[in-house]
Amino acid sequence: MSAWYGVAGCRCMLLLLAVACTLPSGIESIPSRRQCFIAREELSNLIDLLNNMDEPYVDSEPEDFDTLEDPDTPSCSSKLERIRVSVKELHKNYHALKQIRQDDPISNYRISKYRYETKLKNLNQTLFEFVPQVSNQDLTALNQLRRKVKEVEIKLAKSVNNLQKQREQTAVALSETVIQKIRTNSRDAAITEFKYLALRSDDPYRIIVPKVYRGTDDDARKMIDFLEKVDFNDRPIGGYEVLVDRMITDDKLRGENAVRILKGIQAIIMARVGQQHERAVALLKRFRMNAH
């Protein structure tokens, strides 16, 4: 009996060995990842492009770099070209943003700034995706490029912030005429000047209202007179929001002025003009909680 078990055991071992020989090895079953190499000339070219961000943008033909001679060593050229295109697009959109004049419509500035920020985001994303594709020996070179991009990003951010501050200063200067017209009850003239300001400021009411309304009922009346004449397209809800909040703080949300404000808010709700409708509904709730 024991002899039979011995023979059976040997047969099982032989069968297992035969099956094992027909299976591929674990190493061969997992394809190796091919990693590319960065040519120094290409890296240098990208660094130069980043260093020239403050220079006027000039559209140029794609660079032609020599490929590596070893066919078994994949080059990063195609991937680096994507980065190069991203850098050029960032350069182009940055200079387009800088070309927006202080008296140009705020919508032009918003669009240009959005495009610039999108290109910057795309460049960083492209670099991030590139990391696992680069050979270990070239990671240092890639990190050098990433540090340079971060350095340029910080520098450009300061420049963009300065552009924003300049626009805000221009808006404040333009608002002075509007404020003066409102104070002197020159409503039609104030509306004319305000339309010019509204095109150039993100939130003109936060500049105007605090300087017109200084805590008295007469100041509130003048501000309401003005807001009642503002076109719906110029987002009067912004003015009512600032005025109501300040009148709540001063405990002035009452009487005839409060009634007129209520009618103004209700008119905006009835008009159903874009986001103003939602803001007016929210303001109405706040108004009802504080008016007396």
From TrEMBL:
<feature type="coiled-coil region">
    <location>
        <begin position="142"/>
        <end position="169"/>
    </location>
</feature>
<keyword id="KW-0732">Signal</keyword>
<keyword id="KW-0175">Coiled coil</keyword>
<feature type="signal peptide">
    <location>
        <begin position="1"/>
        <end position="29"/>
    </location>
</feature>
<protein>
    <submittedName>
        <fullName>Putative salivary secreted protein</fullName>
    </submittedName>
</protein>
